[in-house]
Amino acid sequence: MIEFDEAIRIAQQHVEKLVKGARDLVLEGALLSADSSLYEITLSYELAGDAPPASDNAPDPAAANLIALAAIMKKRRECKVFFVDSHSGQFKGFKPYTET
Fold first, then answer.
1. Residue 57 has what pLDDT?
2. Rounded CA separation 83/68 (Å)
3. Domain residue ranges in the chain
4. What is the DSSP string of 11-59?
5. Three-state SS letters, 70-89
6. What is the rounded radius of gyration, in angstroms, for the C-alpha atoms of the chain?
7. By C-alpha distance, which of 99, 84, 81 is closest to 45?
8. What is the 8-class DSSP label of residue 5?
9. For 4-48+77-96, CATH number?
10. Max intra-chain CA distance, the chain
11. Across the strands, what pairs with 30?
12. What's the pLDDT tens digit per position in 38-61?
């Protein structure tokens, strides 16, 4: 049986491989299923949108502030649950995280 830290590492590797542009990974939770067959690793990460135009070209400070605000609003954080086989360490898949 693999340990939690190994299951977390496997899940993190698959975020980097499967979710283009994911960065700033944060471990949100790690559970062993009731039947001890799967680790359920919950990770959140930041996804950024397209880069905004340079604020140096803004005609006034208010426009520069709006451009900066638009850049912040394009970023979003997603949270997903990753499944790792507790015996083999094989990645089994992932799904969106939902509050229970």
1. 61
2. 37
3. 4-48+77-96
4. HHHHHHHHSTT-EEEEEEEEEE-TTSSEEEEEEEEEE--PPPPPGGG-S
5. HHHHHCEEEEEEEEEECCCC
6. 18
7. 81
8. H
9. 3.10.450
10. 62
11. 41
12. 999 999 999 876 555 555 565 687
Residues of the chain below pLDDT 70: 49-59, 70-75
Query: Which pLDDT value is given to residue 58?
Result: 56
Give the CA distances from residue 57 to residues 60, 62, 68, 70, 83, in Å, rounded to whole numbers and listed in that order: 9, 12, 12, 15, 47
Query: Under 8 Å CB-to-CB from 26, ≥6 apart: which residues?
Result: 43, 44, 45
Please give the Cα distance from 45 to 38 (Å, whole number): 22
Nearest 10 degrees: Cα torsion 68, 49, 44, 83: 180
- The pLDDT > 70 percentage for the chain reads 82
